[in-house]
Every structure is written in C-alpha cells, then in structure tokens.
Amino acid sequence: MFPIQRLRRNRNDERIRDLLAESRPDKSKMIMPVFVSEDAANPEPISGMKGIFRYPLSMIGEYCKKLDQSGLGGILLFGVPSRKDEIGSEAYNDNGVVQKAIREIKKSSKILIIADLCMCEYTSHGHCGILRGQNVDNDLTLDSYSKIALSYARAGVDVIAPSGMMDGQVYTIRKSLDSAGYTGIPIMSYSSKYASSLYGPFREAAGSTPSFGNRRSYQMDYRNSREAIRENSIDELEGADMLMVKPAIFYLDVIYRSRQSTNLPIAAYSVSGEYAMITSAVESGTLSEDFINEALTAPFRAGADILITYFAESYARTH
Length: 319
Ligand SMILES: [Zn+2]
Hints:
This protein is an alpha/beta fold. It has helices spanning 14-20, 57-69, 97-108, 138-155, 169-179, 200-206, 226-238, 252-261, 272-283, 290-302, 312-318, and strands at residues 30-37, 44-46, 49-56, 74-80, 113-117, 131-132, 135-136, 159-162, 188-193, 242-246, 266-270, 306-309. Helix 3 links the parallel strand 4 and strand 5.
C-alpha cells in the first residue's frame, strides 16, 4: 500500500473542493461601511474608492433597505456633519447626522445598524477627541464619548463601535449605557486599530484628516502584535462584546493571534486603502477578479467571525 495520502486526487472536482473548503466568504457575516452626509443632495463619489458614495439623509433609508434585501450582516455607519467645532459637539446632538440617519434607516428596514463612535469627523482639528494644547486629553474625551453613546442609543442604534482608541472608552460607554437602561446594546470595540497609511481614502470620505500631527499617540504601531493582544484583553475586561482588528489583509497574523487568545467574536475591518488597492489592481487587469474572493476569504481563514468590507455590497448582490 502506498504510504502517503494523495490529497491532490480531490482537487480536480470542484464539488469536492467546495465541500471541503474550510472557510469561505459569507455575506451574512459581512458588514458594509456606509457614509451619510448632512450636506449632500445627491450621492457623492469618493475619490480612490470606485462605487462607494456618501449618501444624503434623504436617500439613506432607501439605500440601506436595498442592502438589507441583499442579505448582508449589517452596516457600519459613519456621519459627515455640516458643522464642526473644537469639541465635536455635533457628535452628541440628538438631531445630528448619525442620529437622524438611524431613525431614517429604521423606518424602512430592519438592517443591523452598527454606529461608529468617534469625534474626528466632528472636530474642527480632525482629532479623535478633545484637545488640551496639541494633545488629545484622554479622560475629557471619555465624557464626550458617553454623551455620544447615549445619544445613539436614544436614536435606536443596534450596536455601538467606539473607534477613538482612548484608554477606558469601552468601560465608560458600557457604564453609561447600563445606567441609562440600555443594557442590551452591545459594544464592538476597535480594539486593535493600527496607525496605518491605508486609511487615506476613508479620511477623504469622512472629512476626518487631522489638521496637524497624527494619531500615532493613540493608534497602534504596525511593528507590534503582542500589543494588540494586550489591547484586546483590556477591552474584553472593560466589557466589549466583540473585538476588532483593523486593517485586515496586512494584519492576518494579528487576527490569528487574537483568535487564539480570546473567545469573543472578532471582526476584521478591511479598510479603504485595501479596497482601493484591490479594485485598482483588478480594474487595470493586473490581477484577475478572483483576487477579490481571495482577499475576502483570508480574514475568515485567519479566524475572523465578521468582515467589515467595502466589497460587502457588491459581493452580496452577486452571491
Ligand atoms: Zn477618530
């Protein structure tokens, strides 16, 4: 008897390959990032991200209804306000852009709404919190994050996703939600968010480029991965219901290590720069279209439970 297993005999039959596939992209596990703009009158294209738009409030309900019908897992909502100030006060205005959008979306569909919670779209300086001098004051910022969370909760949000990377943000938000009776709203924490150049197109989309400095003081150094595990476990202790690794494709090791070290669900966020790179390589014909599937599969193979991706809409439409 031939002593070595012949794995390759399975590989000619696509049905067997499908049956044996260990991981695959699944639209019900995909989340579509959605930008809603207070100023837009029509969908505004985002440069560098073909097929992605900022939607006006008047169209957001209809757009999300379509996404819901395509079988996606949900949306991750970002607001682009018409007014900004030093302290980002529009972020916790009950009639702010995200709050109005949540109410609008709820009128026409049951799609799961995860709302991003940060201040960089709302502050005139573009940083993720309140400044003291040239630096973000962590603890002052936490008060504002609480106010934003409560305002989202009043609007009817399903999940809150704090992305500012302030220390203690999950604990503070959890405590505020619980004491106001919103014990059922889960927190998806951007627990391992790297300071990455892959966020470029997003910052244009959300109008959130810092006017000075950078976010390295509160986002993670891409040379580190043990630090990600520390961030994850702190957020888990603070009461996070889901963790996140962002970006995704260059950080598969971090997704894998996170999967080994926590039992919480893990979301991988494949960011705007990844979308831009993949679409331009496919559009130019440099890489074949299957590269998109390969890129959508890799985070799941690495251990992610949820994939946040700008491909979610088109993938759900065609699968
Ligand atoms: Zn931010």
